[in-house]
């Protein structure tokens, strides 16, 4: 009889903080610089150099921790994690093990009945490593621009039970961090990296099974697939009476499988010890309060406020507030005097569709609130049809075109000329006699077809209602 | 107890190749470990480790988030044992 | 003016004054040093790197700047040597190691920058035990440094090169670094003044790290007044060093004339029970008596924890060093040895690039931090460190200063470090406690043994109390004399009885050239 297993998942999320400079030196963290131009003796680990902690990075870590309901440590220290690798200039990473800056928090995922709290074990600061590249002749090259970029690592307790849980957790985390402006959290770009720990627990048992760690998960899709595959792999092992080996596995999304990276034999001994170059950081109540006070409105509050202030349904509020950028666009547009529900409908409908299709992030939307509001008004005033409005919206989405100018330049105003309309309706009737006959026989669908044909002939610049009325006039 | 296996492990962690003739190294290692072990005799219950001698004096030591440029690429790569264009070249990693 | 020999007799402050008043030129002083280097450097081997042309250029420039008032100060125009673990921009910095044999830093250590801001200039980098690990300056890839007092003997370590350079006249003053006694012990072995400041007083930026929680740079000078001048030039808060402290101005100059009246000086009884060379004990006790005669209250007491200090020090120092030295891997700078693949390259580079002592300490340090041993070794040592520091805090409630020997013996014979690696460590018994507790400590000369080798005494004070040390040191020096007097002074076995310090020549004037040559031994 096959045993029943429960999937137990924990995640470790690394997030690159959006500071101007690295965590321990003044080198810029700006994206896209030529290799080895954002380096200095400190982040190159040159002899005699010393680290100095970035104040803003510390505050951002506190802000994220507070938003995750963590306790902020009154005294926090840095520890050295020692291991040799060429992307690590000192061959030790300055991290935090013994006294992380934040701990014991939680994050809520799910809706209504299925809401649950996922506990957060700790959040700590650490430095990023450089980048290894492979050259044409197979040689390994190192760019240290990224070495020393500030990271926070957020470690969850193994409270997740499925890939849906994991995705929900990571999305929530991303929303919160985005709201704080602490990072742009882009999985594909590496400003957010997720490692998944997974084990199977026999149903009804207390103790946890052996877990594996999975790396190289660069998208939500990869995370979902990896969790599914690992669950199956471990299940197969256990069913065959074999043991799961504690190891780190690298997910290959192209192949849809994972490969073992390190075995237990080689278990790393990082020899963590407190970094003598960095005195402990004392965090006062006053500082914690200041960070709390200067926190922008967070997602949960905004969600509630959208329902109350704008009379939006909870569903709308949830979708709109998932990204602080989307929420901002909504509010600023509504502030222009257009109906909030209309703005919401646009964003939830066309907006989300375009984001998906173009693989964009909400913060990349270029459409300005002013133009957005103008577009909505033009549509309301029937100057443009719904179809045209959608076209203009798409154009303005990435390039913020002025709707008025665009419509005029492309001749997209709704045709008001009744004469032209009548002529077109006439022509459509003449070209579709079968449908006319069908309609007269009682098939309402045929009318819809004729309306559609007319709209097509009018290049979408006729109001559907007008067209319908005209057709009926002609046919009845 | 310190033996060759421990020495082996330590040399791997420290990325230090040991000579084929281990006896002297092992003897020295043992000697040093024993020496460090002389602290066994101390009563250390309830004593907090001392990490920073100036723990009371040192206030928080922070840096403002302002960009500085201390080195240009040429200076950075000048001492590189092996260089390829804009990069440091290192033995192949996998 | 006496001529070149006369110039080399001057202390740094004396030279600075003569330069200021135009009695001696900067280039003139430098040429005197260069001539001495040509005479003695080949046998003494104080320097790893000498940049004489560069020094001449700097001297010329400084002379100009002095004349038009751009540069001033007590040390302006004085040629210095700097230990080769302090980074100097554009000048090779090797740490006495093959692994950094060709490393040229693109930055200066803050301490070097401070010295240059004071108008001094650097003519070269001095020899040291590799990465500061040793107390005889025999463990350098560049070979051993000899003691100018007796070339068969060690100059002490790890700042042996700096001490030998000052003692032989190959520079006027030098910077060393002290992690477990590496300034104080060579100073003692070479008849000089050496100070390790309160931890955090002098920036560590650019000081190539051995044990980060203990390393401090400091002066090695001919006399106490020079030491004060150099300290005031190099001490500074440095925002690049998170362990650097903002301190009140040191006010050392005024301490030089304050005397010791009313100061309570403690003598750790347990320092005199170890393997102390009898002549060293005699000389130190004589100094005690004299300070008492000068108005200090001198009292013996039990310090305690003495035999735990050295193992505590070595555990911590090796642990931190094992991490600090991980960066030497052949990837970004320094030596790279060919290997079959990444890890082999690391292993070959480090095996060939590091000397035996460095490797031993890395192995111990790695061990002490490793899983299963961390609590028993590293953590235990960190707790022992707390005990030792607490004890000093307690002791300094009662005493203003502690006085004792700087080293158990005078300078040992070269090559006398035997097979037992631990044997040499035990010689650090008097010096490591100050590093563990972060307190200031100075060694200064108090006699010579039957072979004529200098004996040093050590003064320790509570953290931030350098001034108190300088009060006592200056008082002692006024009675006993400084470096010049030491060379001409009678050896301890020639004295009838202890006391009667007039025999030491106290406030004598400059010695004659003949006396100088006699005192300096064979050329």
List the helices and strands and how they pair.
The complex is a heterotrimer of chains A (476), B (94) and C (523).
Chain A: E1 5-16, E2 53-54, H1 55-67, E3 71-72, E4 75-76, E5 79-82, E6 92-95, E7 102-109, E8 116-127, E9 131-134, E10 140-143, E11 150-156, H2 163-180, E12 192-202, E13 212-217, H3 220-239, E14 248-252, E15 257-262, E16 273-274, E17 281-282, H4 285-293, H5 299-310, H6 314-320, H7 324-334, H8 340-357, H9 369-380, H10 386-399, H11 403-409, H12 418-431, H13 433-441, H14 444-457, H15 464-475
Parallel strand pairs in A: 13-14
Antiparallel strand pairs in A: 1-11, 1-12, 3-7, 4-17, 5-6, 5-16, 7-8, 8-11, 9-10, 12-13, 14-15
Helix pairs in contact in A: 2-3, 5-6, 7-8, 7-9, 9-10, 12-14, 12-15, 13-14, 14-15
Chain B: H1 4-13, H2 23-36, E1 62-63, H3 73-77, E2 83-84, E3 87-90
Antiparallel strand pairs in B: 2-3
Chain C: H1 4-9, H2 12-20, H3 26-44, E1 47-50, H4 52-67, E2 79-83, H5 110-117, E3 121-126, E4 146-147, E5 150-154, H6 160-168, E6 173-178, H7 184-189, E7 193-196, E8 216-221, H8 224-234, H9 252-255, E9 264-268, H10 278-293, E10 297-301, H11 306-324, H12 342-353, H13 356-369, H14 374-398, E11 401-405, H15 421-425, H16 432-437, E12 441-448, E13 454-461, H17 466-480, H18 483-488, H19 513-520
Parallel strand pairs in C: 2-3, 2-6, 9-10, 9-11
Antiparallel strand pairs in C: 1-3, 4-5, 6-8, 7-8, 7-12, 11-13, 12-13
Helix pairs in contact in C: 3-4, 11-13, 11-14, 13-14
């Amino acid at each position: 009889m096959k045993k029943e297993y429960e999937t137990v998942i924990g995640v470790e999320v690394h997030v690159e903080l959006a500071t101007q400079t690295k965590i321990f030196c003044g080198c810029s963290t700006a994206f896209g610089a030529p290799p080895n131009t954002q380096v200095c003796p400190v982040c190159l680990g040159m002899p005699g150099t010393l680290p100095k902690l970035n104040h803003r990075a510390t505050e951002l870590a506190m802000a994220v921790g507070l938003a995750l309901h963590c306790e902020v440590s009154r005294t926090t220290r840095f520890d050295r994690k020692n291991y040799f690798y060429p992307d690590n200039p000192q061959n030790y990473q300055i991290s935090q093990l013994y006294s992380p800056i934040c701990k014991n928090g939680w994050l809520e995922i799910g809706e209504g009945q299925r809401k649950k709290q996922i506990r957060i074990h700790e959040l700590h600061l650490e430095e990023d490593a450089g980048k290894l590249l492979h050259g044409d002749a197979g040689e390994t090259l190192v760019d240290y621009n990224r070495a020393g970029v500030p990271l926070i690592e957020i470690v969850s307790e193994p409270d997740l039970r499925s890939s849906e849980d994991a995705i929900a957790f990571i999305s929530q985390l991303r929303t919160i961090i985005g709201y704080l402006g602490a990072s742009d959290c882009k999985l594909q770009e590496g400003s957010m990296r997720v490692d998944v720990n997974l084990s199977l627990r026999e149903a009804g048992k207390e103790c946890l099974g052996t877990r594996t760690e999975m790396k190289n998960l660069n998208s939500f899709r990869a995370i979902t697939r990896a969790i599914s595959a690992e669950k199956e792999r471990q299940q197969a092992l256990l069913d065959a009476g074999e043991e799961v080996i504690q190891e780190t596995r690298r997910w290959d999304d192209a192949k849809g499988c994972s490969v073992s990276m390190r075995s237990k034999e080689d278990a790393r001994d990082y020899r963590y010890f407190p970094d003598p170059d960095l005195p402990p950081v004392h965090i006062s109540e006053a500082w914690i309060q200041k960070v709390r006070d200067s926190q922008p409105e967070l997602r949960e509050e905004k969600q509630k406020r959208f329902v109350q202030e704008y009379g939006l349904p909870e569903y709308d509020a949830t979708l709109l507030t998932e990204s602080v950028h989307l929420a901002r666009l909504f509010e600023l547009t509504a502030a222009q005097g257009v109906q909030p529900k209309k703005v919401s409908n646009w964003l939830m409908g066309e907006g989300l569709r375009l984001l998906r299709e173009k693989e964009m992030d909400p913060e990349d939307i270029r459409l300005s609130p002013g133009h957005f509001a103008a577009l909505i008004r033009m549509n309301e005033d029937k100057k443009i049809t719904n179809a045209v409005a959608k076209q203009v919206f798409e154009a303005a989405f990435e390039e913020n075109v002025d709707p008025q100018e665009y419509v005029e330049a492309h001749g997209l105003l709704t045709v008001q000329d009744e004469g032209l309309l009548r002529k077109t309706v006439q022509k459509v009737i003449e070209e579709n006699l079968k449908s006319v006959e069908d309609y007269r026989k009682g098939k309402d669908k045929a009318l819809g077809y004729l309306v559609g044909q007319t709209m097509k002939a009018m290049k979408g610049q006729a109001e559907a209602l007008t067209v319908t009325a005209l057709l009926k006039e002609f046919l009845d | 107890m310190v033996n060759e296996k421990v020495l082996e492990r330590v040399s791997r962690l420290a990325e230090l190749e040991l000579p084929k003739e281990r006896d002297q190294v092992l003897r020295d290692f043992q000697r040093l470990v024993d020496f460090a072990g002389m602290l066994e005799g101390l009563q250390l219950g309830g004593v907090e480790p001392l990490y920073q001698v100036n723990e009371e004096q040192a206030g928080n030591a922070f840096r403002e988030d302002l960009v500085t440029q201390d080195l240009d690429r040429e200076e950075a790569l000048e001492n590189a044992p092996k260089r390829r264009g804009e990069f440091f070249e290192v033995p192949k990693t996998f | 003016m006496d001529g070149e020999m006369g110039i080399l007799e001057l202390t740094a402050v004396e030279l600075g004054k003569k330069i200021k008043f135009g009695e001696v030129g900067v280039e003139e002083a430098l040429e005197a040093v260069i001539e001495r280097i040509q005479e003695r450097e080949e046998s003494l081997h104080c320097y790893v790197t000498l940049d004489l042309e560069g020094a001449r250029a700097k001297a010329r420039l400084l002379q100009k700047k002095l004349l038009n008032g751009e540069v001033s100060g007590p040390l302006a125009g004085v040629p210095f040597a700097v230990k080769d673990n302090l980074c100097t921009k554009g000048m090779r910095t090797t740490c006495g190691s093959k692994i950094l044999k060709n490393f040229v830093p693109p930055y200066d250590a803050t301490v070097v920058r401070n010295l240059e801001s004071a108008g001094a200039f650097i003519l070269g980098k001095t020899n040291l035990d590799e990465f500061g690990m040793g107390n005889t300056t025999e463990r350098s890839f560049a070979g051993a440094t000899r003691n100018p007092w007796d070339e068969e003997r060690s100059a002490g370590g790890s700042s042996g090169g700096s001490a030998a350079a000052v003692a032989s006249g190959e520079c006027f003053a030098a910077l060393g670094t002290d992690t477990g006694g590496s300034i104080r012990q060579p100073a003692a072995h070479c008849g000089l003044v050496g100070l390790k400041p309160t931890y955090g007083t002098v920036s560590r930026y650019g000081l190539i790290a051995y044990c980060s929680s203990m390393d401090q740079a400091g002066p090695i000078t001919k006399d106490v007044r020079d030491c004060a001048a150099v300290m005031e030039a190099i001490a500074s808060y440095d925002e690049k060093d998170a362990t650097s402290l903002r301190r009140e101005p040191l006010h050392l100059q005024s301490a030089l004339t304050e005397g010791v009246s009313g100061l309570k000086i403690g003598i750790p009884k347990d320092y005199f029970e170890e393997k102390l060379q009898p002549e060293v004990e005699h000389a130190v006790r004589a100094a005690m008596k004299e300070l008492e005669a000068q108005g200090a209250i001198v009292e013996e007491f039990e310090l305690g924890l003495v035999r735990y200090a050295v193992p505590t020090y070595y555990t911590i120092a090796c642990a931190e060093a094992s991490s600090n030295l991980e960066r030497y891997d052949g990837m970004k700078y320094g030596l790279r040895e060919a290997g079959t693949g990444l890890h082999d390259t690391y292993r070959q580079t480090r095996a060939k690039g590091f000397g035996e002592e460095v490797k031993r300490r890395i192995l111990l340090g790695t061990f002490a931090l490793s899983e299963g041993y961390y609590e028993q070794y590293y953590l235990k040592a960190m707790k022992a460190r707390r005990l030792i520091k607490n004890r000093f805090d307690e002791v300094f409630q009662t005493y203003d200063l502690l006085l004792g020997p700087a080293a158990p013996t005078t300078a040992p014979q070269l090559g006398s470090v035997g097979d037992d690696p631990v044997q040499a460590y035990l010689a650090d018994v008097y010096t490591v406690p100050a590093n563990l507790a972060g307190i200031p400590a100075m060694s200064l000369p108090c006699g010579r043994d039957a072979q004529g080798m200098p004996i040093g005494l050590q003064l320790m004070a509570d953290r931030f109390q350098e001034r108190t040390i300088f009060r006592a040191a200056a008082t002692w020096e006024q009675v006993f004399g400084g470096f010049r007097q030491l060379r001409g002074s009678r050896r301890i076995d020639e004295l009838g009885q202890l006391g009667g310090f007039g025999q030491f020549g106290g406030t004598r004037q400059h010695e004659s050239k003949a006396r100088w040559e006699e005192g300096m031994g064979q050329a």
